[in-house]
Specification:
heterotrimer; A mainly alpha; B mainly alpha; C alpha/beta; B: mainly alpha; about 70% helix; about 0% strand; globular; C: alpha/beta; Rossmann fold; six-stranded mixed β-sheet
């Protein structure tokens, strides 16, 4: 087998390969289902139905997709510069914490003010958390993969502490059940984010915001000097330094941007959907890690992130709806992993031409 | 009695909790020394944990035989997972970081290991056969060394043997020399006739096997049940451990027990009547990992004890 | 057998490719290799080594953190069986024995990164001898040696030949080929043009075969323009190397506008670090760097760029150019911050494309368009892009490090003419090169670096190769 680097990449290859990857992943998942005694075609049909077709399914899918757009963009923004920010999960939690706090604090103000406040707080929370691995990487050359990942566990534990073990501002201490069944304080009605309804399809504010962020990210990366520098440094850090680019500042900027986006996703979770700080729910959802899969499958393109987030959101949504004795748990994670494997394998065909010599 | 003092309890628990870290780290050392970064350790450990547990549940026979079989199955499960990663990054030249992450997502909590664990109904009951302490109680009652050294299971003692074997392998054998060359300078190794691909495949798979055994240590010794995601990030700590130990097996042992002690600390403190919010203490191993990494990444340290130079890079013979 | 056979050809003629086929690194598309009377095919380097063919590459294949002995014995599987364990003492003894015999003095216990380039080459040769290679291929071995070290190498080669081994000596240097070879095969554009006995050839006849027509290989007279004010002033410059040890020791040098100053020396004596310090890619530990009278604080490439320092780095593809980005992007690599390439934070792609097309036309860069990724360009074209970019910034100082490495004759000519043009427009050129001939052909003055210091400075017109060679080796020159 001979592998040669391609000189020209036909544009269609970039679209076909991810699509084929998803198809292959489905086939493989079907195989696993079959081997473990579940009917594959029926399971897939139920999956698709629950994800997109059934009544209200699409709106539910948008709900599942919204956080994935944020974490997907967060990952894409950083990975483009070879900064492997695995901390999207924790940065989302941080944004949820700060967003919920502000939402509670100014819960009496007019709604638009609350939204703006929560969004800003979410962004700041996520950005500050991301600043830690950023500084460690920029100034101490510490591997950001591990530092950002470790912080995921730390913030998750802090979140749990805030609700389950302390009497923090965020905890609901009213009602006689509060000590036995700890949960977060519910935000006021005015702090509930609005949504747009089009022919029965409900688009939450967070989703619209996410699309806006995707557009901004695209412009930033494709059309500005900032984006140019990211491209150069991502391709060759030495060339970036040679050209007089401030690589350290870039690392900080990109990581904080990434964390900030994930943080807004966290604020959206509180404002759009949960209306209280819900540690268990957020941890179970693994939005951050799924966001990495989204980004990789979308090949780090902001618009593709939106599309892929809808796809994987549908998968997740179906997973929730169908959970039960005859629908295996863990199937969703498995399929996500398979899709990613196939996408990675497919990359080979995008970059190289493979010849088989007999 | 001194054996009930906080220090002894923490140290002996540290050895216990550090054992899965040690196995996983040894495996990752071998893989990374060949130049392959495998971030899927968490996933491989979870697969080892679930498949080892399954063996113990479903296979019947005398305890020693079952336990041996379960370790074998756990190792095999880890190796199979590692094979996926190896194929993607060695033959298909995929990005090693993303591939390792994919492996963790695929095999990890809410992935294949969860699928298998729930499907095979393995949750909610303790393991039928477990790795118990093997020395007589009188030995275990000796001051200090009793609980720490004689109070451990076969898995722990086997891990010590593994440390010695891996260390000797790397420094004193021809294969070990070739391996190190593959990780430092695959071009040099290739020109001297060493088959770079073969070494990378072999050591990545062995790395997976070790990780699988590390996972089984959780489900068959520490927890000892199967729970979704029972490793709680140990795989990631193991990866950090490899860096912290400068890719040396002997330092892996010290590091594993260091982090194990941090993991044991909150439980030990609770046993001593200290009521502090457990969550905050549970952050300690993760924070310690970050601090350790920063210290180790300083320029001076890196200059003297760096990573294998070719770590993370695919080797292609014909590229300029 | 027992012959020293030279393969002569200019860069790009196919010498390295041919040797890589012989040692199993490449597969031939056609033809056959007949070894000791049998037709052979090598599927891997292992196969070639087993057949008795070994190569000493131009870019060493050594494992830097390993010791000499470990490198020599790497991959050796001949006495398998119970040779699972490494026998340190036996290996070191054998290595010592071989180095005595062939005059290759080196300490078996030393680590590669501690050795000089010349010593590293000896390790490469020892590797081949340890494997008892019957045929040794040496690829441009004297590129990294002082003239005196090259002589010692020729001694070693003669000893190996006397032992019945065959040595294939690849070079583009005519006088060396005459000095050491028995027969010479000349390659041109991938074809073998002639095989002649060395004794019957002259440098001119060989050169003619190499290039296909007569060349005058003399030193071109430097046509001196007027030399202006000092544009680059180094005083007592010190800097640390990658390993934290000082690499540049108290270097003082002045370059004036319009002159070309060469820095000669064997690779690894601080030249790269000096270049990096001047252009701001490496921090100064002491001393001053002044560009047109303006003092640079050092360690900041942007400061140097805005002061008017242009840099053509040794590492073309990884540093001078971002390989995955298009030619157009690389052309604006330094100028993107200001108009006309960008307006405020936004880039102007139309202008970038126009600029790129302009450069491609004016400098005759062979490519299918400005959007082609840079890694696809050949070495010569890549260097044109780099040079074009650096000149467009209208620099005061141009630092060029090994600018003609790996280029063919046409490419070398182009680079040399650019450098001369730059000097004639008043730019001060600092030319760092391992090729003494190149410096003698281009520069007005030459400074020799040894172990991080400038051990001597001479006017090119009055300097002799012997004197410079001695300085390069650390003997001779003033303090």
């Amino acid at each position: 087998m001979r592998i040669e680097r391609r000189l020209r990449q036909p544009w269609w290859l970039v679209v076909v390969v991810p699509v084929v990857s998803v198809a292959v992943a489905f086939v493989l998942s079907g195989f696993v289902l079959f081997l473990t005694g579940h009917p594959p075609l029926k399971s897939f049909h139920r999956l698709l139905d629950a994800a997109f077709i059934a009544n209200g399914a699409l709106s539910e899918t948008v709900v599942s997709a919204t956080p994935l757009v944020f974490t997907g963009l967060a990952a894409a923004v950083a990975f483009r510069m070879n900064l492997f920010n695995i901390g999207g999960e924790g940065q989302l939690y941080a944004g949820a914490i700060t967003g919920a706090t502000v939402g509670l604090l100014i819960g009496g103000s007019p709604s638009p003010l609350i939204f703006a406040g929560m969004i800003a707080a979410g962004a700041v929370g996520g950005a500050l958390l991301a600043a830690i691995p950023a500084i460690l990487r920029a100034f101490f050359s510490t591997n950001e993969i591990i530092t950002s990942l470790m912080l995921n566990y730390v913030v998750a534990l802090i979140m749990e502490y805030l609700i389950f073990d302390s009497h923090s501002y965020l905890r609901d201490t009213s009602g006689f059940e509060a000590n036995v069944f700890p949960q977060g304080k519910t935000l006021s009605d005015k702090a509930s984010w609005s949504s747009l309804s089009i022919h029965g399809l409900v688009l939450p504010l967070g989703f619209l915001l996410a699309i806006g962020v995707a557009v901004l990210v695209w412009v930033l990366y494709a059309r500005t000097r900032f984006g140019f520098e990211v491209q150069v440094i991502g391709d060759s850090a030495r060339a970036g330094r040679y050209a007089g680019m401030r690589t350290r500042r870039k690392i900080l900027a990109v990581m904080c941007l990434s964390g900030g986006i994930a943080g807004i996703g966290g604020a959206s979770q509180i404002g759009d959907f949960r209306h209280q700080l819900d540690p268990r729910g957020l941890r179970d959802a693994s939005y951050g890690y799924t966001g990495i899969v989204v980004a990789a499958l979308a090949r780090y393109n902001p618009f593709a992130v939106v599309v892929v987030a809808l796809l994987l959101g549908g998968l997740t949504n179906a997973g929730f709806t169908l959970q039960g004795a005859d629908f295996p748990a863990g199937l969703v994670g498995m399929m996500q992993g398979l899709i990613l494997f196939c996408a990675l394998g497919g990359e080979l065909f995008v970059r190289y031409r493979v010849r088989f010599a007999w | 009695m001194v054996n009930n003092s906080l220090i002894v309890v923490v140290l002996s628990s540290g050895v216990l909790y550090g054992t899965p870290l040690l196995y996983a780290a040894l495996g990752e050392v071998l893989a990374e020394r060949s130049g392959v970064l495998n971030l899927g350790v968490e996933g491989m450990m979870l697969m080892g944990a679930v498949m080892g547990f399954w063996t113990v549940e479903r296979v019947h026979g005398p305890t020693p035989l079952i336990l041996a079989a379960s370790i074998g199955v756990a190792a095999l499960a880890g190796a199979v997972m590692a094979a996926i990663h190896a194929f993607l990054v060695i033959t298909l030249r995929a990005n090693q970081i993303v591939s390792g992450l994919a492996l963790t997502i695929f095999a990890g909590a809410a992935g294949l290991s969860s699928y298998l664990g729930n499907d095979l109904q393995l949750a909610g009951k303790p393991a039928k056969h477990q790795f118990q302490e093997i020395f007589p109680t009188s030995w275990q009652d000796l001051p200090v060394v009793g609980p720490i050294i004689f109070g451990q299971s076969l898995l722990v003692y086997a891990s010590w043997v593994c440390v010695v074997l891996v260390a000797l392998y790397l420094t004193r054998t021809r294969l070990g020399l070739n391996l190190r060359a593959v990780g430092e300078s695959p071009a040099a190794a290739d020109a001297m006739g060493v088959n770079v691909s073969r070494y990378r495949y072999a050591h990545t798979l062995v790395g997976g096997a070790f990780a699988g055994v590390g996972g089984a240590a959780f489900s068959l010794s520490i927890t000892p049940q199967w729970v979704d995601g029972l490793t709680q990030g140990a795989g990631w700590i193991a990866i950090a451990l490899v860096i912290f130990a400068f890719w040396r097996p002997t330092l892996c042992l010290l590091g594993a027990y260091f982090f194990g002690a941090f993991t044991a600390l909150p439980f030990a403190l609770q046993g001593h009547g200290v009521t502090v919010a457990p969550e905050l203490f549970q952050t300690l191993p993760y924070v310690a990992t970050i601090v350790a990494l920063v210290l180790v990444s300083s320029r001076a340290a890196r200059l003297r004890f760096g990573a294998p130079a070719a770590l993370g890079l695919p080797y292609v013979r014909e590229e300029r | 057998m027992g012959e020293v056979h030279a393969l002569l050809g200019e860069n790009g003629a196919g010498k390295t490719t041919l040797s890589k086929i012989l040692t199993g690194l490449y597969r031939p598309d056609e033809g056959e290799i007949v070894l000791f009377g049998h037709a052979v095919e090598f599927s891997s380097p292992r196969a070639a080594l087993d057949a008795g063919i070994a190569m000493v590459h131009q870019h060493f294949r050594l494992v830097s953190p390993f010791t000499v002995a470990e490198n020599v014995v790497l991959g050796d599987h001949r006495d398998v069986g119970r040779s699972f364990l490494l026998r340190q003492r036996e290996i070191e003894a054998r290595v010592g024995e071989l180095s005595q015999r062939y005059g290759l003095a080196v300490d078996p216990r030393a680590r590669i990164w501690q050795l000089s380039v010349g010593e590293q080459q000896r390790v490469e040769i020892l590797k081949a001898l340890y494997q008892d290679a019957r045929i040794l291929i040496l690829d441009e071995p004297t590129a990294v040696l002082t003239p005196q070290e090259a002589e010692a190498l020729f001694e070693t080669i003669r000893a190996m030949a006397a032992d019945g081994r065959t040595v294939i000596f690849i070079s583009h240097k005519l006088h060396e080929v005459k000095a050491v070879a028995d027969r010479v095969t000349v390659l041109r554009r991938g074809k073998s043009v002639a095989t002649v006995p060395a004794a019957d050839s002259t440098p001119r006849s060989l050169a003619a075969l190499m290039v296909g027509h007569e060349l005058d290989a003399g030193r071109r007279p430097t046509d001196r323009g007027t030399v202006g004010e000092p544009v680059l002033d180094l005083a007592g410059v010190c800097a640390d190397g990658d390993r934290g040890v000082p690499a540049v020791n108290d270097v003082s040098l002045t370059i004036r506008g319009g002159e070309i100053v060469g820095v000669a020396g064997v690779a690894g004596n601080g030249q790269r670090e000096l270049a990096e310090t001047i252009v701001g890619m490496r921090p100064l530990t002491s001393g001053t760097v002044e560009v047109c009278g303006r003092r640079l604080s050092g360690g900041d490439p942007r400061e140097a760029i805005s002061a008017g320092v242009a840099y053509v780095p040794e590492d073309r593809l990884g540093t001078g150019v971002a390989p995955g980005l298009s030619i157009a992007s690389n052309i604006v690599l330094k100028s993107y911050r200001a108009a006309p390439v960008s307006t405020g934070p936004m880039l102007r792609f139309g202008r970038i494309r126009d600029l790129a097309r302009g450069v491609i036309d004016r400098y005759d860069v062979r490519t299918s368009g400005p959007n082609v990724p840079a890694w696809q360009l050949s070495g010569g074209n890549l260097q044109k892009v780099v040079l074009a970019r650096e000149f467009s910034g209208e620099p005061a100082v141009l630092v060029a490090a090994s600018p003609t490495r790996g280029l063919d004759v046409a490419g070398i000519e182009t680079v040399h003419s650019y450098l001369r043009d730059a000097a004639s427009t008043g730019v001060g050129v600092l030319l760092i090169s391992e090729d003494l001939d190149e410096i003698l052909a281009l520069a007005d003055r030459v400074a020799v670096m040894y172990e991080g210091s400038v051990v001597g400075e001479r006017d090119v017109e009055t300097a002799t190769v012997e004197e410079l060679g001695l300085m390069m080796a650390g003997a001779g020159g003033e303090d």
